[in-house]
Amino acid sequence: MPIDQFEELRGNIASFQHRLHDYLLKQRRNYLQLVDSYKQDIEKYNVMKESLQSKELMLEAEEQDLKKQIDGLQEKTQETSAKLEALEIRKRQLLEERAVVERDRNELKELLQKKRNEVEQQRHAITRQHLRDRPEVSAYERLLGLDINADRPEMLRFTFSNVLERDQDARCSFSLDLSLPEGYKIVDSRPEISETEARALEEELARSGDLPAFLKHTRAVLIAALQPN
């Protein structure tokens, strides 16, 4: 090989070696950059992995706690349902018992009212009989033409005849209400007498209890009202 060709070949080899060296350096730098990038990615991955593991542990703990809460609520729900059912049963029992008490109360009220009416009727009957059986009243019936009738259980009707000499058919009458707890009351007088006169006669009877005197005074008031002025 001629010397000039040898020199050219050596120059080409040197140039090739230089380019190869540059290429290898470049590849090495790229590799090192790739390795650094990989390491950074690995570090990021490890950080993310630790974060995910920590979050996973937290979620597992929260899941366990939630499961316990759900189990507790289910137990409480069952217990509450049982209590509600027991309360509903007791409520129905109370309503039934209340209905029985209300029925008994109404029956007792009716019984008491019935007894009260019986006592009141008996009292009125005794009062009427007492008025009729008194000797003074019997004497008034004969002498003054007095007639006593029971229009109603609580009412006595007194009728006087022989009240006017000039008119043998003239009559005077009044009713005595026995039902009032505060005393007697004159009602439906014929002829009509004033409220003041009736009140005075009622108070006289309540104060003295003298029935003959009451009948005598009432007859006089009725006759006075019957006669023209």
TrEMBL record:
Coiled coil: 35-129
Location of the Chromosome segregation protein Spc25 C-terminal domain: 152-220
InterPro entries: Spc25, Spc25_C
Alphabetical list of CDD domains matching this protein: RWD_Spc25
Subcellular location: Nucleus; Chromosome, Centromere, Kinetochore
Highest taxon in the source lineage: Eukaryota
Any Gene Ontology biological process: chromosome segregation
Listed GO CC annotations: Ndc80 complex; nucleus
Keywords: Cell cycle, Cell division, Centromere, Chromosome, Coiled coil, Kinetochore, Mitosis, Nucleus
Claim: Cytoplasm is one of the keywords in the record: no
Keyword Coiled coil: yes
Function: Acts as a component of the essential kinetochore-associated NDC80 complex, which is required for chromosome segregation and spindle checkpoint activity.
Family from the record: Belongs to the SPC25 family.
Subunit structure, interactors included: Component of the NDC80 complex, which consists of NDC80, NUF2, SPC24 and SPC25.
Protein name as catalogued: Kinetochore protein SPC25
